[in-house]
Amino acid sequence: MTTTPPPTAAPLPAATIVGYPRIGPDRELKKAEEAYWAGRIDRTELDRRTAALRTATRERLTELGLDAPAAIPETFSLYDQVLDAAVTIGAVPGRFADVLDADGRIGADGYFTLARGDAQRPPLEMTKWFDTNYHYLVPEIGPDTDLHLASTQVIDLFTEALAAGTTTRPVLVGPLTLLLLAKAEDGAPEGFTPLDRLDDAVAVYAEVLERLADAGAPWVQVDEPILATDIDLVAGPSAARDEGAGSDAAQSDGGASSAAARSDGGAGDVDDVIARALQRSVGRLTSLAQRPQILVTTPYGGIGDHLPALLSTGAEAVHLDLTRGDLPTAEQLTGIGETALVAGLVEGRTVWRTELPTAAARLDALRDLVRTAGGDERTVSVATSVSLQHVPHSLDRENALDAALRATLAFADEKVAEVVLLASGDVVPGDVDGPRSVPRDFAGVHDESVRERVAALGPDASTRSPFSARRAAQEQALDLPVLPTTTIGSFPQTAEVRRARADHRAGRLDASGYRQAMREEIARVIALQEELGLDVLVHGEAERNDMVQYFAEHLDGFVVTEHGWVQSYGSRCTRPSILFGDVSRPEPITVEWSAYAQSLTSKPVKGMLTGPVTILAWSFVRDDQPLAQTATQVALALREEIADLEPAGIGIVQVDEPALRELLPLRRADQDAYLRWSVESFRIATAGAADGTQIHTHLCYSEFNEVIDAIDGLDADVTSIESARSRGEVVDAIDPERFERGIGPGVWDIHSPRVPSTEEIVELLQHAQEAIGPRALWANPDCGLKTRGYRETEASLRNLVEATRQVRAQVAALA
């Protein structure tokens, strides 16, 4: 590959990061966007606030030591980095064609329409970003999608920073990652995959790079995390999406549909196909006569034998995740030439401090490998493993944390400081195979009584009676109609509810007053559900700030933060708890609220628990013991909670596992072990329930087709699954001959403010009923209603109940 050296050549900074939190330390982005959506501020004010947030971010990173040109990546996004890349290249589905102006450009309102939908159209599908709790919007691309430069945001952000005196590094999700995470637009011919549009997409990337060079950008960052996965470029992304983890189809080496394979004569060795695709994407970009230097990042895991192909593209720098990936071998570095390496030695997914002597030793080892391979060891820079968007901003205001625990923690700012310190050379190297995080040995980390309970578990601890026996007992106990209606758990949290919690936390409302306020809200929610005509009710979870944090506050082994906000998607932020020690349940957690709700109605009320895998996935978890061991500890605490809910009159218990797919390892070789222990932990939590107690679970916003066997293995009596944004796509993966238990494919996308019509819901229920039969089918929203308002909630639930009534009538007529 012949490359053209960019005219703006400049050395890569010795210290950098892959990305930084963009919501602001006080959730400034969330507040600005939601004010704009609600009409409280105009576009000018939105632009002013977001510009101020970006300025503050650049100034903060400069203060922390990223003061060299291009050391700061420009990773700001109004909603989602994948959506940003999609609109940059004009990947706008036909149903949203009107969001583009006469010149084919998209503005903020059109951008938000893609993300949030409108009264007539659902938004783009949303799913998990690799193995994180961040959600990205799934681009839709067809053979006729007009790929063109539709947004210049990446250029505008660079020029904004430059005008203010800071030379940043523009960032784009790379073309391979973008196309392999996309889905074919509805109506695309069979066999088409978005990867077929690789050349067209790269042409737009090339235009962006040329414009960035004209603007004076010395470097551009192209993120290609897809290289850290086992997604197969030969079979195309549809194989990974539809056939599931570890399937033979996903390993196919024939019948290739992707353009990457077809252009070189069809099927071939997977590594060869990846190498060709890299040449046709990154390699084409490096051949441009006018461009910035290119840094290709490969976060979220090791890329192993793909490294030689990436080095051969002519990119000036390659980033490696060395916290989840191994050091490269000398053979993999053959041909490194003048390519700089960026060592991702500071873990960006956790809040544990880096054991700096170990990291320094690995840095030295990498430099030795580069020198042996004929490269320049002086070109090895230090960075984070992934974007720091997955951790909170700073420890500075976390004054309530125990000093011993705090000394082992690092949020985004502290991790930047670690990167700068490692790059300075002032850390004395230790053992290259030493611990990756600072050792923890203080009160609460080890509890022998917890470990003894885990060790005492017998072989039957995860086994319930056969489903046929449970179904008979549950039908007699619950007497539910065909196609029962329910919700997932939470109801909208009003300003009054939040105020009561805040006042109680601050001491302005005593325990009695708080209890009374929550009981009044529960009574209101129960009355509303009865009036709407729902069959299985929930208490609404008014007392819960977050479905994981609430349990963390009531379990030993956890601490919670005061300001540790992390973006989940768009304006949605969470405060992940920190699981630092052995987990146990000092006393019942949910029993009082559930029992009170059940006392108000003759209809069944679900007890609502968060499952062990989700508690782990949505917390920052200790890394000094296997996740499976920690999951079992959490499962035992939940098992105790179910044992207390049953005598309190709760006949249905929902144990939510929305993160089951989220923690699935990116490499197939590691997936079976994960699925075994994750399923086992759920079953340990629920296997103590009586036959007549109906166990539900809920999963949302993941590629469920990849873990459908694991979902079956959970052995829940009823499973509700996100399905509305994909128009019931998951239903087609469910074999009713194998999956005999209850299933509730979501029929209302609650992550959008739009109200689905009765007709829409009828269509989804009919599709589900035809695929899996009425006896197993439930009608429910995609997820909890905490983030929605009561007006849209009531309207949507009325439509859901009416749609269910119509489908029940159709089923009865056919009986």
Tally the helices: what do you get? 26
- Content-based structural category: alpha/beta
Count the beta strands: 21
Strand line-up across the major sheet: 1-5-7-8-9-10-11
Mean pLDDT: 91
Name the assembly state: single chain
Cα distance spanning the termini = 67 Å
Shape: globular
Reported for the largest beta sheet, the result is: 7 strands, parallel
Q: Low-confidence runs (pLDDT<50, min 5 residues)?
A: 234-268
Helix content: 25-40%
Beta strand %? 5-15%
Rg from alpha-carbon coordinates = 26 Å
How would you describe the overall organization of this protein?
It is a single chain. This protein is 37% helix and 11% strand. It is of the alpha/beta class and 815 residues long. The chain has a 7-stranded parallel beta sheet. Helix 1 runs antiparallel to helix 2, helix 17 (495-506) runs antiparallel to helix 18 (511-532) and helix 22 packs parallel to helix 23 (671-686). The longest helix is centred in the last third of the chain and has 25 residues, at 790-814. It is globular, with a radius of gyration of 26 Å. Mean pLDDT is 91; it is low at 234-268.
